[in-house]
Amino acid sequence: MSKPLLDPEQWYATLPTAFVSACLLLTDADDRVLVVKPNYRPYWMIPGGVIEAGELPQECAAREIGEELGLDVRAGELLVVQWSPPVDDRPRAMVNFLFDGGTVADPAGIRLQEEELDDAAFLPWDEAAARLAFHTAPRLLAARQAREAGRIVYLSDVFPATGG
């Protein structure tokens, strides 16, 4: 005898959940990467943020860049999708979409949202990756490969579930 099916509300309540975020890879004319230093984290980040209810990932990435950096940038091609398990104070897995934001023509046009950001800088790829959290650095390096190869990179299990 089979078990009766759960009603949709009960069934959905049994499914795992994840946080979802979206970022933009932005570079300057010298092929340096834009990274930001939030005031609420000890490490630098790729510009972007958490997706709001009903928002598409590419909309989130463009909105966050507008809010945090004052730039009107459209999300281009998808470069990287990264799934990462819970780490540090984050209790759930995170799925991140990293889109190509292209080249910032006028870096002087960047206006930091001081409520969230302490700094922003265009850095060489390796230096930018070194400033990122251990679970974010592989995403930046994969984005470079994806941009050069013209193909999307999927990352998962790039670090132990216990963090580090």
Automatic annotation (TrEMBL):
PROSITE patterns: NUDIX (PS51462), NUDIX_BOX (PS00893), PROKAR_LIPOPROTEIN (PS51257). Residues 16-145 form the Nudix hydrolase domain. Keywords: Hydrolase, Magnesium. CDD domains: NUDIX_Hydrolase. SUPFAM superfamilies: Nudix. GO terms for molecular function: hydrolase activity. Gene3D superfamilies: Nucleoside Triphosphate Pyrophosphohydrolase. It holds the Pfam family NUDIX. Its cofactor is Mg(2+). Belongs to the Nudix hydrolase family. This is Nudix hydrolase domain-containing protein. It comes from Planobispora longispora.
